[in-house]
Each structure stands twice: as structure tokens, then as C-alpha cells.
Amino acid sequence: xxxxxxxxxxxxxxxxxxxxxxxxxxEVFASSGxxxxxxxxxxxxxxxxxxxxxxxxxxxxGALTPVGFGGIIKTLIxxxxxxxxxxxxxxxxxxxxxALGLPIKQxxxxxxxxxxxxxxxxxxxxxxxxxxxxxxVEDQKIQKMxxxxxxxxxxxxxxxxxxxxxxxKANAKYPEKSFIVSAYEYDVPVYISTMKDSSLxxxxxxxxxxxxxxxxxxxxxxxxxxxxxxxxxxxxIVELGGGVPKNTAQxxxxxxxxxxxxxxxxxxxxxxxxDARPDTGGLSGATLQEGKSWGKIHDSHExxxxxxxxxxxxxxxxxxxxxxxxxxxxxxxxxxxxxxLYNKLSKDYFKNPNxxxx
Length: 358
Description:
Elements (H helix, E strand, L loop, with lengths): L21 H9 L3 H18 L3 E6 L9 H9 L5 E4 L1 H12 L3 E3 L6 H6 L2 E4 L2 E4 H15 L8 E2 L1 H15 L7 H7 L4 E3 L6 H4 L2 H4 L6 E2 L1 H14 L3 E6 L2 H8 L1 H8 L9 E6 L13 H5 L11 E5 L2 H15 L8 H18 L7
Parallel strand pairs: 1-2, 1-9, 2-7, 6-8, 9-10, 10-11
Antiparallel strand pairs: 3-5, 4-5
Helix pairs in contact: 1-2, 2-15, 3-8, 7-8, 11-13, 11-16
């Protein structure tokens, strides 16, 4: 459809009804304009991803679990609407507070942080976390949990999170309050794109000072992630914010095509929720269309939607929409298949005689 011609859907004079459902509300958004329209179209695209059986990656930047959003992610995992995850270490670390029943409170952003420091209160915007009762307890758990694991052998952050989920399920006070536990139960790989930039890695320092070594195989990680996309009939991403998680999921296309010399990489669908601008040159604000020049997406005209909004506002609407109108999907259980997918990509790579070193 030529966008330069005068055609399109009529815009209704919106009337709200107390009996409206989330589907009705999304229709209101989709029938309007600006970012309301983008949000409505994003919700419908997420439903399309599910209906078409796409392998869906959820990327989560920043720290969304301290505001309780891990519960939304958990529900999406259990319904089969998320197949693999790329997130920050902060989201994994702070999610575990809920499983352990450690105190987190609504606080204030208009505050004297010198006084908070004196009171041993840590602040994330308007969320308060106790230094001793929460962070110290969490740190001790992480240190104890990994005192004898992953030393002197390579591991991936997916393996790290899988073990965390397994142990939290067995030992946490409230394992039902952890999306990491659900990821373990449903074999959803959870990759931490910036492991060293988080308290998870900081807690490994005490073991490293005892000359215990940790060998994170980050190259294997990126191959595993590309192998998931390579094996998918259709591949999709729902991006909450930007940052390193966004690029980690999107760079699977360039790895497959630019580096491994294939011509089948890139995502079929991407939804991006961001409040970052594209003109500053940062990855968080880079348009999805720009990603086409890198081979990160199949099509720069279709199957992509960017919502310029606060994730804490847009994501619950997006999630509730698909939870309300989509049937649960059978879990793909990618974690248990990851070795098989890796070997398949490796085998196909070496089928090309040009890739065999003489």
C-alpha cells in the first residue's frame, strides 16, 4: 500500500465503556495514532508471532524485576509465549529476592541519598532495597551456591541461570515467585548478556581470590544463540528497552550471514519498546529499520514495530493482550536441545568446503 496516497482506516471517535476488555483497549490504541497506535500494532504482532509458532526471544534491559515484572515474564514462559531470554545480570539477581522473601519496598525518587546511605537503604529510582537484610543475604546465597560449581571448566550464562533456577526451586522460600525457576522448569535458556556487569559476577570474586577460576565461554553463547535462530522456522524478538540484551539477540543475523557466510539470518519479527532516541548513535535508540543494513532483520518494511514508551507502562498491556486471546503453546524446551542445535549449525558450516582450513 502506497503511504503517499490518501487511504487507510477511518479513525473512530473513541468511546470508552466500563465493560471493555484488554482486547477492546488494544483496538482503541490500534485505531488511534502516535505511540498508542504503535502499541496496539505491537500487541497484535506479538499475537501473530505466537499464532505462527515463531521462536520468541524476550530481551530485558535495565532492572525490571525489582518492580515485580518477573511475575509477568514467568507467566509468559508458562504459557509458552517466551522460548529464550537475554537479560541483564541485575534482572536475575534482583528476581531472586522475591523467591527468598527478602524485603523490597516502594520508596521515593525525591529523596536525600546521603540519608538513605546512612540508613543502609539502596535505591533504584523509587524502589528501596535493604542493604543488610536483602543484598547481604542474597550475596551470601550466591556465594554459597557457586562455591563448588563451574570452577576449572567452561560454562555459559544459560547454564549458570539453569543451576540457579534448579536450586531456587529446591531451596527458596517462594520458588513460585521467580521467572528463573519457571525458566528451569520449562527449559527456557536465560542468557545474561553482561554477566561481569552485575552483582552475580561480583559474588564470584570471593572464590576467584581463593584461586578458583571461572571460564565463561562467551563465544559458545553467541553460537548457541545463533543456532536457535538458525533452527527456527520463524524467529522473533520482543525487546524491553535496548542496551546489550537487544544487540545480543539481534546480532545472531550478522553471525550467521556476515561471519558464517550464510544467507538465512535475521529475524522475521521484532517488537521494540524504547524511550531512547535514534539520533544519538546509541544501540538502545537504533531503529529496527537500520538493523536491516546489518542483516539483523529479514524485512525493513514489515514485521517490525517500535513503541516509544516506558516499558513499565507498555509491557503489561502487551503481555495481557496475548494472555487474554492466545491459547497456551507447547514449550519448545530449547535448553535441553541446545547442544543438538549447536552441532547442527557446526555441521552445516563445515559442509561448505571453503570453511575448512587447509
